[in-house]
Amino acid sequence: MAAEDATSRDTGAHAFEEIDWDRIDARGGRSVDGWAITEAAILVGLLAGFVYDYSAGTPTELIGLDPTAVEWLFSIVLVLGTFHVAVPLAENPRLTARYWRTFRKNRVAVGSLGFLLSILALGVVGPMIWVPPNETIDFATAYRPPVFAGGSWAHALGTDAQGRHLWHLIVYGMRVSMEVGLVSTAIAISIGTVVGATAAHVGGYVDEGLMRYVDLQQTFPVFVLLLFLVYLFGPSLLFIVVLYGFFGWEGIGRLVRSETLQRTEAVYVRAAEAAGAGRWWIVRRHLIPNVSGTVITAATLAIPTFILGEAALAFLGFSDPAVFSWGRTIAAGRSDLASAPWISTIPGVFLFLTVLAFNFVGDALRDAMDPR
Amino acid sequence: MTDPLLRVDGLTTHFHTDEGTVRAVDGVSFDVAAGETVAIVGESGSGKTVAAESITRLVDTPPGEIVDGRVTFGGRDLTTLSDRELEGVRGAEIAHVFQNPQDTLNPVYRVGTQIAEVLRIHGGVSRAEARRRAVTMLDRVGIPDPASRVDDYPHELSGGMKQRVVLAMALVAEPDLLIADEPTTALDVTVQAGILDLLAELQEDLGMGVLFVTHDLGVVAQVADRVVVLYAGKVMERGDVHEIFESPAHPYTRALLQCLPGRGERGGSIGGELPDPNDPPPGCRFAPRCPYAVDDCRAGGQPAAHPVDGDRTHVASCVFHGPGQDRSRLEAPVDWTGGQRARSQSEDADG
User: Are the Cβ atoms of B146 and A17 closer than 8 angstroms?
Assistant: First the structure.
């Protein structure tokens, strides 16, 4: 009886509430389109710049900068990241708060996230502040120890055999590591998501074919292919970044496929079907958004493997001499390990901490976004 | 008589499994008129959900297959429409509400977005307009402060609120027919009553037909105008809700009613279990559990739908209601829980 009374108050004798339509319209719709247009405009601008840069034969200087191909890709990835990660998080403060509450519990991960964000920020703006390491060559100040080992603040992290400031090498190395990690991962996520979702949703022979190809690719030695290409065409960071991306997506592809298959059984997918949604609407609007948490987690854990792979190639000497990779600095310091251990150690510590931090953040993200 | 809103005729849905063909729905016929509520009742595994989902071909194919039958809706046979045409019917003309509101809402979207989705799918509505209609709909389903609730995520709502949102999702496009598959089973009783009242109210407002799938006879008594009793993929009895409850004609319907607390002497269970869906028994599907069953019941196919007392709207698929049969035998008191034993006793009495 009580329940019925409550109901009639709720619905039966229910007077329609005054609704502030202006408020609703102000909050709905507009922002999404606005952001999409801004994003498209920036991307078109970047593409135009890229085409201009490379159509003139020799790369031309733009407003005092001379970006490389990898740097163009890096900026595109940063723009995509801003609009597809940062903007949605800012637009959905309550959802963000919910993730953050779980993420925050992992103190180490919060610290790691801070560390990675500073590395990213330094990697992006650092090279605009500090001159390239080769411009600091000064044999008079070679082998200066870092400040915590009795050195001076003039060379806070010490200098290497050519008197280059280690700090400059580290900062330029941050950009290289971030470029490799983020661009390769962006390529891998895109291919992996498309292949995984297609395999899961189309099924049958397409699924079979794609997954057998994934098996094949997993056994394929990318490292050896890279060595071969470096031998043929000379060292290039672009090769490394693109090849890692194109041959590093199989894990994400598999994951997206299995997650999509699981989500296909979800009631909300049936509900969307019952509402008249077509196959691709369901994939785009329901399946991919729901696997994105898992994908972001997997991607965070994939980034360090790409960074380590690049560092390993550079350590072996297969890197562009104009690229100041941490791996190369570590390798260069090997011969002086006994007399000047900081030359190898400091970039080594940065590499180690970066890889570790990505792993911590990935674990915490999994707890926050994919609690199973 | 004018054409009903929905006419299902001889619908047959099979599932092809490794163990053989499961005849989940086997020649089911019923109809739903505009503005009325028809309840499909049956126990778990009777095929009621498959029957409901076969109407708009939501059954996964494979393994499912709609083998036979016609589903006439708005002058078209839905079983022969192309996938694209069917997508135009789903949501816009025939909406579905599923059992578990918890899972029907996509966790990553705000409820307003999800209610507006069906309008966006079928096109012709701007984002802002869809959003306005979502807010209006939330208000209609009795969500307080719809203007701010529209931006809530599903995890921020209670179970009852979620089911109201699910109803709003189904009804925002103002469909002609709503198929509600156990819409209140996952809710507690007080919330359930509220949802059923709301559904009745919205049905009256929108003038839509409702096909209500449930195992709960208490709910049937509350919502239905007419009832279809399903057992093992076959219609056992069909009729007006008063006839079904006051003068049930089929032994299975009587057995179901006996199971209701407060009805019959015992309120017990029915002896035996559902027949193997891969290999149903010959004759009436209920015969192995039926205390009245005679040899005729166990031969041939499911008996035809015989009118009860010459009433064409009340039919029972039982040999005792066939022409020239003695219906009084169904009046004999029997032990429902006994199954086989009770049946042989009643045969002895006959002999």
Answer: yes
